[in-house]
Amino acid sequence: MTTSSAPGKVYLFGEHAVVYGEPAVPCAIQRRARVTVEERDDDRLQVQANDLTLDGFTVTWGGETNDRPDVDVPAPLVEAAMGYIDGAIEQALDAVDVEECGFDITVESDIPLGAGLGSSAAVVVAGIDAAVRELGGELDAQAVAERAYEVEYEVQSGEASRADTFCSAVGGAVRVRGDDCRRLDDVPTLPFVVGYDGGTGDTGELVAGVRELREEYDFAADTVESIGDIVRKGEAALQRGDIEEVGRLMDFNHGLLSALGVSARSLDTMVWAAREADALGAKLTGAGGGGCIVALDRTEQTHTALEYTPGCETAFRAALDTDGVRVEE
Ligand code: MEV
């Protein structure tokens, strides 16, 4: 039996603009998905999933009978879970050159599902790592990231960027620009607080909305470029340890994302609550439309303020996690 874990992430800077070739800086956070795998003596997969936002379910599939699951959670969720797990196991078998093998798999995650915190990427990254190790192999974090990206790309029909999978596999703060991904060195401690409105935005629709705006209005194209400038300045501020400037740039980044129409009342309310509670900076994270904000909190006040903010379902501390995927003893 082998357990591996991998972190979720927030976007410190650059979501949406990254779609148009600008850089982005996602950061791994101390919220993890843990995947335990144990080889079976048939070729079926049995998955038991216990996510923060689900009551939990167990499905078994594959093998000769290939029966479909009969579970009491929304079918698309189960289908997505099966797609990610199937993909992770396929990648693991390929990595160690094994043709067929079944597993009992347990997924436990404290990353809210579908909230833009990279929960599916964390499950895929941890799943590949655990299955490879269970079969006696080992991959470095970059190789896990590459294979996890293949899985996300397949399941999300070509819509995935490398940000989530790379960040989850290598940990820390990373810089992503197209296919070029690297970890940023010497990044200071980043005391993140996440506020979650309990909802989720439709990433495909939000990305399409920005594309239309950018085609029709020069201001939107300029805004995307300005986000790129903020990312470059933010990266420099991070590397000289100037977290006050990082916070200021997060505020600018949120304003520009609002101009592109991807914020929401709940997100704006949480961002303002964080700022009024003396956060160094606050912005939405991910596609927007609903989901999460991230604030840089130098006191306890932001966390407490968010917990009492109307529209905030839950708030939690989630500092930068310098560990990427790792095996759990
Ligand atoms: C979604 O989490 C982030 C976006 O930039 C889309 C993407 O990069 O694939 C909006």
From TrEMBL:
One Gene Ontology term of the molecular function aspect: ATP binding
Gene3D superfamilies in UniProt: 3.30.230.10, GHMP kinase, C-terminal domain
UniProt pathway annotation: Isoprenoid biosynthesis; isopentenyl diphosphate biosynthesis via mevalonate pathway; isopentenyl diphosphate from (R)-mevalonate: step 1/3
PROSITE patterns given in the database record: GHMP_KINASES_ATP
Cofactors required: Mg(2+)
Binding, ATP: P112, L113, G114, A115, G116, L117, G118, S119, S120, A121, A122
Active-site residue list: D164
Locations listed in the record: Cytoplasm
InterPro entries: Galactokinase, GHMP_kinase_C_dom, GHMP_kinase_C_sf, GHMP_kinase_N_dom, GHMP_knse_ATP-bd_CS, Mev_gal_kin, Mevalonate_kinase_arc, Ribosomal_Su5_D2-typ_SF
Keywords: ATP-binding, Cytoplasm, Isoprene biosynthesis, Kinase, Lipid biosynthesis, Lipid metabolism, Magnesium, Nucleotide-binding, Transferase
EC number annotated for this UniProt entry: 2.7.1.36
Domain GHMP kinase N-terminal: 85-172
Domain GHMP kinase C-terminal: 236-300
Catalytic activity as recorded in UniProt: (R)-mevalonate + ATP = (R)-5-phosphomevalonate + ADP + H(+)
Ribosomal protein keyword on record: no
GO BP annotations, alphabetical order: galactose metabolic process; isopentenyl diphosphate biosynthetic process, mevalonate pathway
Entry's Gene Ontology cellular component terms: cytosol
Pfam family, one: GHMP_kinases_N
Family of the protein in this entry: Belongs to the GHMP kinase family. Mevalonate kinase subfamily.
Biological role stated in the UniProt entry: Catalyzes the phosphorylation of (R)-mevalonate (MVA) to (R)-mevalonate 5-phosphate (MVAP). Functions in the mevalonate (MVA) pathway leading to isopentenyl diphosphate (IPP), a key precursor for the biosynthesis of isoprenoid compounds such as archaeal membrane lipids.
UniProt subunit comment: Homodimer.
Annotated protein name in UniProt: Mevalonate kinase
